[in-house]
Write a structure and sequence with these properties.
By secondary structure, the chain is of the alpha+beta class. The protein contains 14 helices and 29 strands. Strands 1, 2, 3, 4, 5, 6, 7, 8 and 9 form a 9-stranded mixed β-sheet that branches. Strand 25 and strand 26 form a beta hairpin. The chain is globular and about 80 Å long. Bound molecules: MU-OXO-diiron (FEO).
Length: 588
Protein backbone atom coordinates (compact mmCIF):
# COMPACT_ATOMS: atom_id res chain seq x y z
CA UNK A 1 0.00 0.00 0.00
CA UNK A 2 1.18 3.53 -0.76
CA UNK A 3 2.82 5.18 2.23
CA UNK A 4 1.11 8.33 3.48
CA UNK A 5 2.37 11.02 5.79
CA UNK A 6 0.87 10.82 9.24
CA UNK A 7 -0.04 13.70 11.46
CA UNK A 8 1.49 13.06 14.86
CA UNK A 9 1.80 15.47 17.76
CA UNK A 10 5.23 15.47 19.38
CA UNK A 11 5.98 16.73 22.88
CA UNK A 12 9.00 18.86 23.62
CA UNK A 13 11.96 16.55 24.27
CA UNK A 14 13.23 16.07 27.81
CA UNK A 15 16.55 14.55 28.88
CA UNK A 16 16.82 11.47 31.11
CA UNK A 17 20.37 10.35 31.97
CA UNK A 18 21.50 12.17 28.84
CA UNK A 19 18.95 10.39 26.63
CA UNK A 20 16.28 12.27 24.68
CA UNK A 21 12.69 11.31 25.54
CA UNK A 22 9.51 12.48 23.80
CA UNK A 23 5.90 11.46 23.65
CA UNK A 24 3.98 11.30 20.42
CA UNK A 25 0.23 11.14 19.85
CA UNK A 26 -1.47 9.94 16.67
CA UNK A 27 -4.91 8.78 15.58
CA UNK A 28 -4.91 5.01 15.23
CA UNK A 29 -8.42 3.91 14.29
CA UNK A 30 -12.04 4.75 14.98
CA UNK A 31 -12.23 6.12 18.54
CA UNK A 32 -8.65 5.08 19.22
CA UNK A 33 -5.41 7.02 19.57
CA UNK A 34 -1.89 5.96 20.40
CA UNK A 35 0.43 7.62 22.87
CA UNK A 36 3.97 6.50 22.11
CA UNK A 37 6.92 7.11 24.40
CA UNK A 38 9.94 7.68 22.19
CA UNK A 39 13.26 6.62 23.77
CA UNK A 40 15.56 7.89 21.02
CA UNK A 41 18.92 6.83 22.37
CA UNK A 42 18.34 3.64 24.37
CA UNK A 43 21.16 1.41 23.15
CA UNK A 44 20.67 -1.99 24.76
CA UNK A 45 18.05 -4.25 26.30
CA UNK A 46 19.90 -7.37 27.32
CA UNK A 47 23.35 -8.81 26.61
CA UNK A 48 22.41 -9.90 23.11
CA UNK A 49 20.08 -7.07 22.32
CA UNK A 50 21.93 -3.97 21.18
CA UNK A 51 19.69 -1.19 19.88
CA UNK A 52 20.87 1.15 17.16
CA UNK A 53 17.67 3.11 16.58
CA UNK A 54 16.44 3.43 20.19
CA UNK A 55 12.98 2.13 20.96
CA UNK A 56 9.44 3.20 21.79
CA UNK A 57 6.91 2.05 24.39
CA UNK A 58 3.46 2.21 22.82
CA UNK A 59 0.15 2.67 24.61
CA UNK A 60 -3.35 3.35 23.29
CA UNK A 61 -6.53 5.03 24.44
CA UNK A 62 -9.88 3.58 23.32
CA UNK A 63 -12.84 5.93 23.69
CA UNK A 64 -16.11 4.07 24.11
CA UNK A 65 -18.71 5.15 26.64
CA UNK A 66 -15.94 4.01 28.94
CA UNK A 67 -12.29 4.85 28.38
CA UNK A 68 -9.70 2.08 28.23
CA UNK A 69 -5.96 2.68 28.37
CA UNK A 70 -4.08 -0.24 26.81
CA UNK A 71 -0.60 -0.32 28.42
CA UNK A 72 1.15 2.65 29.98
CA UNK A 73 4.89 3.29 29.71
CA UNK A 74 8.34 2.96 31.21
CA UNK A 75 8.81 4.70 34.56
CA UNK A 76 11.46 7.00 33.05
CA UNK A 77 8.59 8.69 31.15
CA UNK A 78 6.51 9.32 34.31
CA UNK A 79 5.97 13.11 34.17
CA UNK A 80 6.01 13.41 30.42
CA UNK A 81 3.64 10.49 29.83
CA UNK A 82 1.15 11.49 32.53
CA UNK A 83 1.08 15.07 31.21
CA UNK A 84 0.39 13.81 27.69
CA UNK A 85 -2.27 11.41 28.95
CA UNK A 86 -4.09 14.19 30.83
CA UNK A 87 -3.94 16.44 27.76
CA UNK A 88 -5.40 13.77 25.49
CA UNK A 89 -8.18 12.89 27.91
CA UNK A 90 -9.11 16.58 28.14
CA UNK A 91 -8.92 16.99 24.36
CA UNK A 92 -11.45 14.14 24.00
CA UNK A 93 -13.73 15.57 26.70
CA UNK A 94 -12.91 12.81 29.20
CA UNK A 95 -11.98 13.22 32.82
CA UNK A 96 -10.36 9.86 33.52
CA UNK A 97 -9.59 6.30 32.58
CA UNK A 98 -12.09 3.54 33.42
CA UNK A 99 -9.96 0.52 32.52
CA UNK A 100 -6.23 -0.05 32.36
CA UNK A 101 -5.50 -3.11 30.23
CA UNK A 102 -2.16 -4.61 31.26
CA UNK A 103 -0.95 -6.94 28.52
CA UNK A 104 2.04 -8.07 30.55
CA UNK A 105 3.99 -6.85 33.53
CA UNK A 106 7.53 -6.24 32.35
CA UNK A 107 8.50 -2.77 33.61
CA UNK A 108 8.98 -1.18 30.20
CA UNK A 109 5.17 -1.30 29.84
CA UNK A 110 3.91 -1.54 33.41
CA UNK A 111 6.29 0.94 35.03
CA UNK A 112 3.49 3.45 35.50
CA UNK A 113 0.64 1.19 36.63
CA UNK A 114 0.90 2.46 40.18
CA UNK A 115 0.90 6.08 38.97
CA UNK A 116 -2.20 5.49 36.85
CA UNK A 117 -3.95 3.91 39.84
CA UNK A 118 -2.95 6.89 41.97
CA UNK A 119 -4.18 9.39 39.36
CA UNK A 120 -7.45 7.54 38.66
CA UNK A 121 -8.33 5.68 41.88
CA UNK A 122 -11.46 4.11 40.35
CA UNK A 123 -9.65 2.65 37.37
CA UNK A 124 -10.14 -1.11 36.99
CA UNK A 125 -6.91 -2.91 36.14
CA UNK A 126 -7.60 -5.70 33.66
CA UNK A 127 -5.21 -8.60 33.12
CA UNK A 128 -4.97 -12.37 33.12
CA UNK A 129 -4.69 -14.26 36.39
CA UNK A 130 -0.88 -14.43 36.31
CA UNK A 131 -0.62 -10.73 35.45
CA UNK A 132 -2.85 -9.61 38.32
CA UNK A 133 -0.89 -11.85 40.70
CA UNK A 134 2.36 -10.19 39.52
CA UNK A 135 0.82 -6.75 39.97
CA UNK A 136 0.02 -7.51 43.62
CA UNK A 137 3.80 -7.32 44.17
CA UNK A 138 4.41 -4.36 41.90
CA UNK A 139 1.64 -1.97 42.93
CA UNK A 140 1.97 -0.85 46.51
CA UNK A 141 -1.56 0.42 47.00
CA UNK A 142 -5.02 -1.14 46.75
CA UNK A 143 -6.40 -1.28 43.22
CA UNK A 144 -9.59 -2.48 41.56
CA UNK A 145 -8.97 -5.42 39.29
CA UNK A 146 -10.70 -7.66 36.77
CA UNK A 147 -9.16 -11.02 35.95
CA UNK A 148 -9.97 -12.10 32.39
CA UNK A 149 -9.61 -15.39 30.52
CA UNK A 150 -9.11 -16.06 26.84
CA UNK A 151 -12.36 -15.33 24.98
CA UNK A 152 -13.73 -12.91 27.60
CA UNK A 153 -15.13 -9.67 26.19
CA UNK A 154 -15.10 -6.22 27.80
CA UNK A 155 -17.79 -3.95 26.32
CA UNK A 156 -16.65 -0.32 26.41
CA UNK A 157 -19.70 0.99 24.53
CA UNK A 158 -19.86 2.84 21.18
CA UNK A 159 -19.10 -0.46 19.44
CA UNK A 160 -15.75 -1.00 21.16
CA UNK A 161 -15.68 -4.55 22.48
CA UNK A 162 -12.33 -5.83 23.68
CA UNK A 163 -11.89 -9.58 23.29
CA UNK A 164 -8.96 -11.08 25.17
CA UNK A 165 -6.59 -13.70 23.79
CA UNK A 166 -4.06 -15.28 26.14
CA UNK A 167 -0.62 -15.51 24.51
CA UNK A 168 1.67 -16.80 27.27
CA UNK A 169 5.43 -16.63 26.66
CA UNK A 170 5.23 -13.93 23.98
CA UNK A 171 7.46 -13.21 25.58
CA UNK A 172 6.37 -13.16 29.22
CA UNK A 173 4.21 -15.72 31.06
CA UNK A 174 1.36 -13.23 31.47
CA UNK A 175 1.20 -11.86 27.92
CA UNK A 176 -2.32 -11.23 26.66
CA UNK A 177 -3.58 -9.76 23.38
CA UNK A 178 -6.79 -7.68 23.13
CA UNK A 179 -8.83 -7.37 19.96
CA UNK A 180 -11.24 -4.45 19.53
CA UNK A 181 -14.11 -5.66 17.37
CA UNK A 182 -15.23 -2.05 16.87
CA UNK A 183 -12.02 -0.77 15.32
CA UNK A 184 -10.22 -3.87 14.02
CA UNK A 185 -7.19 -3.10 16.19
CA UNK A 186 -5.30 -6.02 17.73
CA UNK A 187 -3.22 -4.94 20.73
CA UNK A 188 -0.28 -7.34 21.03
CA UNK A 189 2.22 -5.80 23.46
CA UNK A 190 5.71 -7.20 22.68
CA UNK A 191 4.60 -9.44 19.82
CA UNK A 192 5.07 -8.02 16.28
CA UNK A 193 7.19 -5.19 17.65
CA UNK A 194 10.62 -3.83 16.85
CA UNK A 195 13.10 -1.66 18.65
CA UNK A 196 13.00 1.17 16.13
CA UNK A 197 12.30 4.74 17.12
CA UNK A 198 11.23 7.00 14.25
CA UNK A 199 8.99 10.05 13.80
CA UNK A 200 6.51 7.98 11.75
CA UNK A 201 4.19 6.12 14.14
CA UNK A 202 3.36 3.53 11.46
CA UNK A 203 5.06 0.97 9.21
CA UNK A 204 4.75 3.22 6.14
CA UNK A 205 8.29 2.49 4.99
CA UNK A 206 8.97 -1.19 5.53
CA UNK A 207 12.58 -1.50 4.29
CA UNK A 208 14.32 0.26 7.19
CA UNK A 209 12.07 -1.47 9.72
CA UNK A 210 12.50 -5.07 8.54
CA UNK A 211 16.01 -5.78 9.88
CA UNK A 212 14.94 -4.52 13.31
CA UNK A 213 11.70 -6.53 13.16
CA UNK A 214 13.65 -9.70 12.39
CA UNK A 215 16.34 -9.10 14.99
CA UNK A 216 13.67 -8.42 17.63
CA UNK A 217 11.95 -11.68 16.70
CA UNK A 218 15.21 -13.59 17.03
CA UNK A 219 16.03 -12.15 20.44
CA UNK A 220 12.60 -12.17 22.06
CA UNK A 221 10.29 -14.55 20.22
CA UNK A 222 12.52 -17.20 18.69
CA UNK A 223 13.13 -18.99 22.03
CA UNK A 224 9.33 -19.26 22.32
CA UNK A 225 8.55 -20.30 18.76
CA UNK A 226 6.08 -22.94 19.90
CA UNK A 227 4.12 -20.28 21.77
CA UNK A 228 4.28 -18.03 18.69
CA UNK A 229 2.63 -20.80 16.67
CA UNK A 230 -0.07 -21.23 19.31
CA UNK A 231 -0.79 -17.49 19.44
CA UNK A 232 -0.95 -17.26 15.65
CA UNK A 233 -3.52 -20.06 15.60
CA UNK A 234 -5.60 -18.22 18.21
CA UNK A 235 -5.74 -14.96 16.21
CA UNK A 236 -6.10 -16.63 12.80
CA UNK A 237 -9.81 -15.92 12.48
CA UNK A 238 -9.88 -12.47 14.07
CA UNK A 239 -10.58 -9.76 11.46
CA UNK A 240 -7.82 -7.42 12.59
CA UNK A 241 -6.57 -4.74 10.22
CA UNK A 242 -4.14 -2.91 12.50
CA UNK A 243 -1.67 -4.24 15.05
CA UNK A 244 -0.92 -1.96 17.98
CA UNK A 245 2.30 -3.50 19.27
CA UNK A 246 4.30 -2.38 22.30
CA UNK A 247 7.53 -1.32 20.58
CA UNK A 248 8.40 0.45 17.33
CA UNK A 249 6.11 1.43 14.47
CA UNK A 250 2.50 0.26 14.77
CA UNK A 251 1.50 -2.04 11.94
CA UNK A 252 -1.07 -0.66 9.52
CA UNK A 253 0.27 -1.05 5.98
CA UNK A 254 2.03 -4.41 6.01
CA UNK A 255 0.04 -6.52 8.45
CA UNK A 256 -0.26 -9.78 6.41
CA UNK A 257 3.39 -9.56 5.34
CA UNK A 258 4.70 -9.04 8.87
CA UNK A 259 2.41 -11.60 10.53
CA UNK A 260 3.40 -14.01 7.73
CA UNK A 261 7.06 -13.57 8.66
CA UNK A 262 6.32 -14.67 12.25
CA UNK A 263 4.50 -17.68 10.83
CA UNK A 264 7.43 -18.68 8.63
CA UNK A 265 10.07 -18.15 11.32
CA UNK A 266 8.10 -20.01 13.99
CA UNK A 267 7.25 -22.94 11.70
CA UNK A 268 10.91 -23.36 10.74
CA UNK A 269 11.72 -24.18 14.37
CA UNK A 270 9.28 -27.10 14.48
CA UNK A 271 11.72 -28.89 12.13
CA UNK A 272 14.47 -28.60 14.77
CA UNK A 273 16.36 -31.81 15.56
CA UNK A 274 15.69 -31.69 19.33
CA UNK A 275 13.70 -29.90 21.99
CA UNK A 276 14.74 -28.49 25.36
CA UNK A 277 12.23 -27.85 28.15
CA UNK A 278 13.16 -24.74 30.14
CA UNK A 279 11.37 -24.83 33.49
CA UNK A 280 11.36 -21.60 35.45
CA UNK A 281 9.42 -19.87 38.22
CA UNK A 282 7.67 -16.86 36.75
CA UNK A 283 8.14 -13.48 38.38
CA UNK A 284 10.50 -15.02 40.91
CA UNK A 285 13.90 -13.35 41.33
CA UNK A 286 15.73 -13.33 38.00
CA UNK A 287 14.20 -16.62 36.88
CA UNK A 288 12.33 -15.12 33.91
CA UNK A 289 15.23 -13.21 32.42
CA UNK A 290 17.89 -15.83 33.10
CA UNK A 291 15.72 -18.57 31.64
CA UNK A 292 15.04 -16.48 28.53
CA UNK A 293 18.78 -15.94 28.09
CA UNK A 294 19.51 -19.63 28.46
CA UNK A 295 16.71 -20.41 26.01
CA UNK A 296 18.25 -18.06 23.48
CA UNK A 297 21.55 -19.93 23.83
CA UNK A 298 19.72 -23.17 23.04
CA UNK A 299 18.05 -21.75 19.92
CA UNK A 300 21.38 -20.36 18.66
CA UNK A 301 22.37 -23.99 18.07
CA UNK A 302 19.17 -24.71 16.11
CA UNK A 303 17.37 -26.60 18.88
CA UNK A 304 13.76 -25.88 19.82
CA UNK A 305 12.80 -24.58 23.26
CA UNK A 306 9.57 -24.94 25.16
CA UNK A 307 9.21 -22.98 28.37
CA UNK A 308 6.95 -23.81 31.28
CA UNK A 309 6.25 -22.05 34.54
CA UNK A 310 6.86 -24.41 37.47
CA UNK A 311 4.44 -22.40 39.57
CA UNK A 312 1.45 -22.90 37.32
CA UNK A 313 2.11 -25.74 34.86
CA UNK A 314 -0.48 -28.50 34.77
CA UNK A 315 1.15 -31.83 35.87
CA UNK A 316 -0.03 -33.65 32.74
CA UNK A 317 1.33 -30.88 30.51
CA UNK A 318 4.65 -31.06 32.34
CA UNK A 319 4.88 -34.83 31.84
CA UNK A 320 4.11 -34.43 28.12
CA UNK A 321 6.62 -31.61 27.73
CA UNK A 322 9.38 -33.59 29.40
CA UNK A 323 8.40 -36.60 27.30
CA UNK A 324 9.00 -34.78 24.00
CA UNK A 325 12.22 -33.07 25.20
CA UNK A 326 15.69 -34.53 25.31
CA UNK A 327 17.10 -31.65 27.36
CA UNK A 328 15.68 -30.12 30.54
CA UNK A 329 16.75 -26.90 32.24
CA UNK A 330 15.57 -26.49 35.79
CA UNK A 331 15.71 -22.98 37.23
CA UNK A 332 15.59 -23.27 41.03
CA UNK A 333 12.09 -22.30 42.11
CA UNK A 334 11.24 -20.73 45.49
CA UNK A 335 11.82 -23.52 47.99
CA UNK A 336 8.76 -22.66 50.05
CA UNK A 337 6.26 -22.84 47.20
CA UNK A 338 3.83 -25.78 47.31
CA UNK A 339 3.14 -25.47 43.55
CA UNK A 340 6.83 -25.66 42.73
CA UNK A 341 7.35 -28.66 45.01
CA UNK A 342 4.48 -30.49 43.33
CA UNK A 343 5.98 -29.69 39.89
CA UNK A 344 9.43 -30.85 41.03
CA UNK A 345 8.06 -34.15 42.18
CA UNK A 346 6.22 -34.63 38.85
CA UNK A 347 9.39 -33.68 37.01
CA UNK A 348 11.61 -36.12 38.89
CA UNK A 349 9.33 -39.01 38.04
CA UNK A 350 9.07 -37.96 34.36
CA UNK A 351 12.84 -37.69 33.76
CA UNK A 352 14.57 -40.69 32.20
CA UNK A 353 18.34 -41.14 32.69
CA UNK A 354 18.78 -42.79 29.29
CA UNK A 355 17.04 -39.95 27.49
CA UNK A 356 17.47 -36.62 29.24
CA UNK A 357 20.40 -34.22 29.66
CA UNK A 358 19.74 -31.84 32.52
CA UNK A 359 21.01 -28.42 33.63
CA UNK A 360 20.22 -26.91 37.04
CA UNK A 361 20.56 -23.19 37.74
CA UNK A 362 19.91 -20.69 40.50
CA UNK A 363 17.34 -17.96 40.00
CA UNK A 364 18.80 -15.41 42.45
CA UNK A 365 15.47 -14.82 44.10
CA UNK A 366 16.42 -15.08 47.78
CA UNK A 367 14.36 -18.20 48.47
CA UNK A 368 15.78 -20.48 45.76
CA UNK A 369 15.37 -24.19 46.28
CA UNK A 370 19.00 -25.09 47.16
CA UNK A 371 20.57 -26.25 43.92
CA UNK A 372 22.76 -28.82 45.70
CA UNK A 373 19.62 -30.58 46.94
CA UNK A 374 18.10 -30.48 43.47
CA UNK A 375 21.27 -32.00 42.03
CA UNK A 376 21.33 -34.69 44.74
CA UNK A 377 17.72 -35.64 43.91
CA UNK A 378 18.58 -35.89 40.23
CA UNK A 379 21.70 -37.95 40.86
CA UNK A 380 19.69 -40.25 43.12
CA UNK A 381 17.34 -40.78 40.14
CA UNK A 382 20.30 -41.68 37.94
CA UNK A 383 20.55 -38.27 36.22
CA UNK A 384 23.94 -36.60 36.27
CA UNK A 385 23.56 -32.93 35.25
CA UNK A 386 25.46 -31.97 32.11
CA UNK A 387 27.46 -29.27 33.93
CA UNK A 388 27.87 -28.05 37.49
CA UNK A 389 24.81 -26.16 38.69
CA UNK A 390 24.89 -22.54 37.56
CA UNK A 391 25.20 -20.37 40.65
CA UNK A 392 24.26 -16.71 40.84
CA UNK A 393 25.65 -15.01 43.93
CA UNK A 394 24.84 -11.40 43.15
CA UNK A 395 22.44 -9.45 40.97
CA UNK A 396 23.17 -10.85 37.50
CA UNK A 397 25.65 -8.86 35.41
CA UNK A 398 26.45 -9.33 31.74
CA UNK A 399 29.00 -12.05 32.48
CA UNK A 400 26.29 -14.08 34.25
CA UNK A 401 23.93 -13.73 31.31
CA UNK A 402 26.82 -14.79 29.08
CA UNK A 403 27.30 -17.90 31.27
CA UNK A 404 23.61 -18.78 30.92
CA UNK A 405 23.53 -18.23 27.19
CA UNK A 406 26.66 -20.28 26.60
CA UNK A 407 25.35 -23.08 28.81
CA UNK A 408 22.19 -23.18 26.69
CA UNK A 409 24.29 -23.48 23.54
CA UNK A 410 26.47 -26.19 25.10
CA UNK A 411 23.38 -28.17 26.09
CA UNK A 412 21.92 -27.89 22.59
CA UNK A 413 25.21 -28.95 21.02
CA UNK A 414 25.44 -31.94 23.36
CA UNK A 415 21.95 -33.03 22.30
CA UNK A 416 22.73 -32.81 18.60
CA UNK A 417 26.37 -33.93 18.64
CA UNK A 418 25.66 -37.38 17.19
CA UNK A 419 23.49 -35.95 14.47
CA UNK A 420 26.13 -33.34 13.57
CA UNK A 421 28.78 -36.06 13.25
CA UNK A 422 26.45 -38.11 11.06
CA UNK A 423 25.76 -35.06 8.88
CA UNK A 424 29.47 -34.42 8.46
CA UNK A 425 30.08 -38.07 7.58
CA UNK A 426 27.26 -37.94 5.06
CA UNK A 427 28.77 -34.88 3.39
CA UNK A 428 31.93 -36.71 2.28
CA UNK A 429 34.29 -34.53 0.28
CA UNK A 430 33.20 -34.13 -3.29
CA UNK A 431 35.11 -32.37 -6.04
CA UNK A 432 33.00 -29.32 -5.35
CA UNK A 433 34.04 -29.21 -1.69
CA UNK A 434 37.65 -29.77 -2.69
CA UNK A 435 37.48 -26.98 -5.24
CA UNK A 436 35.89 -24.55 -2.79
CA UNK A 437 38.60 -25.33 -0.26
CA UNK A 438 41.11 -23.74 -2.66
CA UNK A 439 39.57 -20.40 -1.70
CA UNK A 440 41.91 -19.51 1.14
CA UNK A 441 41.61 -17.07 4.00
CA UNK A 442 44.02 -15.77 6.61
CA UNK A 443 44.11 -16.73 10.26
CA UNK A 444 42.69 -14.26 12.73
CA UNK A 445 41.37 -13.99 16.26
CA UNK A 446 38.17 -11.99 16.49
CA UNK A 447 37.67 -10.41 19.91
CA UNK A 448 34.75 -8.49 21.41
CA UNK A 449 34.03 -7.03 24.81
CA UNK A 450 31.48 -4.83 26.42
CA UNK A 451 33.01 -2.24 28.70
CA UNK A 452 32.48 -2.11 32.48
CA UNK A 453 32.62 -4.34 35.53
CA UNK A 454 30.99 -7.73 35.06
CA UNK A 455 30.73 -7.11 31.33
CA UNK A 456 30.86 -9.95 28.82
CA UNK A 457 33.81 -10.61 26.50
CA UNK A 458 34.65 -13.33 24.06
CA UNK A 459 36.90 -14.40 21.20
CA UNK A 460 37.06 -16.89 18.35
CA UNK A 461 39.44 -18.08 15.64
CA UNK A 462 38.28 -16.85 12.24
CA UNK A 463 39.40 -17.40 8.69
CA UNK A 464 36.28 -16.44 6.72
CA UNK A 465 37.27 -12.78 6.64
CA UNK A 466 37.41 -10.49 3.60
CA UNK A 467 37.67 -6.80 2.83
CA UNK A 468 34.30 -5.62 1.55
CA UNK A 469 34.50 -1.86 0.88
CA UNK A 470 36.94 1.03 0.26
CA UNK A 471 34.92 3.99 1.46
CA UNK A 472 34.45 3.56 4.31
CA UNK A 473 37.05 0.84 4.80
CA UNK A 474 34.99 -2.23 5.60
CA UNK A 475 35.23 -5.99 5.93
CA UNK A 476 33.04 -9.04 6.45
CA UNK A 477 33.47 -11.85 8.96
CA UNK A 478 31.32 -15.00 8.84
CA UNK A 479 30.33 -16.07 12.36
CA UNK A 480 28.63 -19.43 12.99
CA UNK A 481 25.22 -18.89 14.56
CA UNK A 482 26.05 -20.95 17.63
CA UNK A 483 29.28 -19.11 18.45
CA UNK A 484 29.33 -17.48 21.88
CA UNK A 485 30.82 -14.29 20.44
CA UNK A 486 27.85 -13.87 18.10
CA UNK A 487 25.86 -12.17 20.87
CA UNK A 488 28.54 -9.50 21.17
CA UNK A 489 28.65 -8.79 17.43
CA UNK A 490 25.25 -7.24 16.87
CA UNK A 491 24.73 -4.15 14.75
CA UNK A 492 26.39 -1.25 16.57
CA UNK A 493 28.80 -3.44 18.55
CA UNK A 494 32.60 -3.12 18.28
CA UNK A 495 35.03 -5.96 17.71
CA UNK A 496 38.72 -6.47 17.08
CA UNK A 497 40.33 -8.48 14.28
CA UNK A 498 43.79 -9.70 15.29
CA UNK A 499 46.05 -10.99 12.49
CA UNK A 500 48.22 -14.00 13.33
CA UNK A 501 51.74 -14.18 11.89
CA UNK A 502 52.62 -17.08 9.61
CA UNK A 503 55.50 -18.17 11.82
CA UNK A 504 53.90 -17.90 15.23
CA UNK A 505 50.19 -18.45 14.82
CA UNK A 506 50.00 -21.86 16.48
CA UNK A 507 50.11 -20.85 20.18
CA UNK A 508 47.28 -18.32 19.96
CA UNK A 509 45.32 -20.49 17.57
CA UNK A 510 45.57 -23.51 19.88
CA UNK A 511 44.55 -21.40 22.84
CA UNK A 512 41.44 -19.98 21.20
CA UNK A 513 40.45 -23.27 19.56
CA UNK A 514 40.02 -24.91 22.98
CA UNK A 515 36.51 -25.87 23.92
CA UNK A 516 35.97 -23.40 26.76
CA UNK A 517 33.43 -24.19 29.47
CA UNK A 518 30.41 -21.87 29.44
CA UNK A 519 31.23 -18.48 30.92
CA UNK A 520 35.02 -19.12 30.95
CA UNK A 521 37.36 -16.18 30.39
CA UNK A 522 38.90 -16.81 26.97
CA UNK A 523 41.65 -14.29 27.71
CA UNK A 524 43.14 -15.93 30.78
CA UNK A 525 46.88 -16.36 30.18
CA UNK A 526 46.83 -14.16 27.08
CA UNK A 527 48.38 -10.66 26.95
CA UNK A 528 46.01 -8.07 25.60
CA UNK A 529 45.08 -4.41 25.84
CA UNK A 530 41.90 -2.57 24.91
CA UNK A 531 41.51 -0.77 21.57
CA UNK A 532 39.82 2.69 21.68
CA UNK A 533 36.32 1.16 21.85
CA UNK A 534 37.29 -1.61 24.24
CA UNK A 535 37.90 -4.53 21.85
CA UNK A 536 40.75 -6.72 23.15
CA UNK A 537 43.94 -6.42 21.08
CA UNK A 538 46.27 -9.41 21.43
CA UNK A 539 49.85 -8.33 22.11
CA UNK A 540 51.20 -11.16 19.94
CA UNK A 541 49.10 -10.26 16.91
CA UNK A 542 51.16 -8.89 14.01
CA UNK A 543 48.45 -6.32 13.28
CA UNK A 544 44.92 -5.51 14.40
CA UNK A 545 41.94 -3.42 13.36
CA UNK A 546 38.96 -2.35 15.44
CA UNK A 547 35.59 -2.39 13.69
CA UNK A 548 31.95 -1.45 14.27
CA UNK A 549 29.21 -3.78 13.00
CA UNK A 550 27.06 -2.08 10.35
CA UNK A 551 24.84 -4.93 9.14
CA UNK A 552 24.43 -8.70 9.19
CA UNK A 553 23.36 -11.06 6.43
CA UNK A 554 21.81 -14.34 7.54
CA UNK A 555 22.83 -17.58 5.82
CA UNK A 556 21.72 -21.08 6.80
CA UNK A 557 24.32 -21.50 9.52
CA UNK A 558 26.36 -18.28 9.71
CA UNK A 559 25.91 -14.55 10.12
CA UNK A 560 27.94 -12.64 7.55
CA UNK A 561 28.83 -9.55 9.53
CA UNK A 562 29.74 -6.39 7.63
CA UNK A 563 31.71 -3.86 9.67
CA UNK A 564 33.33 -0.50 9.22
CA UNK A 565 37.03 -0.41 10.14
CA UNK A 566 37.64 2.44 12.58
CA UNK A 567 41.16 2.02 13.81
CA UNK A 568 44.22 -0.20 13.32
CA UNK A 569 47.91 -0.71 13.93
CA UNK A 570 50.64 -2.90 12.47
CA UNK A 571 52.80 -4.31 15.28
CA UNK A 572 55.26 -6.32 13.16
CA UNK A 573 55.70 -4.72 9.71
CA UNK A 574 58.13 -7.39 8.53
CA UNK A 575 55.75 -10.30 9.19
CA UNK A 576 53.03 -11.76 6.99
CA UNK A 577 49.60 -13.04 7.99
CA UNK A 578 49.24 -16.82 8.26
CA UNK A 579 47.20 -18.46 5.49
CA UNK A 580 44.57 -21.06 6.30
CA UNK A 581 44.74 -23.90 3.77
CA UNK A 582 42.14 -26.65 3.75
CA UNK A 583 41.53 -29.91 1.90
CA UNK A 584 37.74 -29.74 1.81
CA UNK A 585 35.20 -26.98 2.36
CA UNK A 586 32.84 -29.08 4.53
CA UNK A 587 34.91 -28.16 7.58
CA UNK A 588 36.65 -25.00 8.77
FE1 LIG B 1 8.56 -4.86 26.07
FE2 LIG B 1 8.43 -7.77 27.57
O1 LIG B 1 8.58 -5.93 27.54
Amino acid sequence: MEAAPHAAKMSEPVLWNGNRLQTQVADLAKGTITIRSLDWERDRFDIEFSLVEGTTYNSCLVFGDKVALVESSHAKFRDLYLRTLRQELAAHGRSGVDYLIVSHTEPDHSGLVEDIVEEFPDVVVVGCKVCIAFLENLVHRPFKRQVVKGGDVLDLGKGHELEFVLAPNLHWPDTMFSFDRGSGVLFTCDAFGSHYCSPDPFDSDLDPILPHYQFYYQCLMHPNAKSVNTALRKIKDLPYTTIANGHGPLLRFNVPELVGRYQAWAEAVSKAPACVAVLYASDYGYSDRLSQTLARGVTKAGVEVEMADLLSVDPQELVELVGRSSGVVLMAPPGDSADARASLSTLLSALKPAKHRVVVAESFGGRDEPVDELVRSLVASGLEPLVEALRVKAEPCEAVYQLFEETGTDLAQALTAKEQIALKKASMPSNVAKALARVSGGLYIVTAAHVGEGAARSAMVASWVAQASFEPLGLTVAVAKDRAIESLMQVGDYFGLNCLGEEEYSRLMKHFLQRFPAGADRFEGVDWFPAPHGSPVLKDAIAHVECRVVSRLETSDHWVTYAEVLDGQVAAPEKRTAVHRRKVANYY
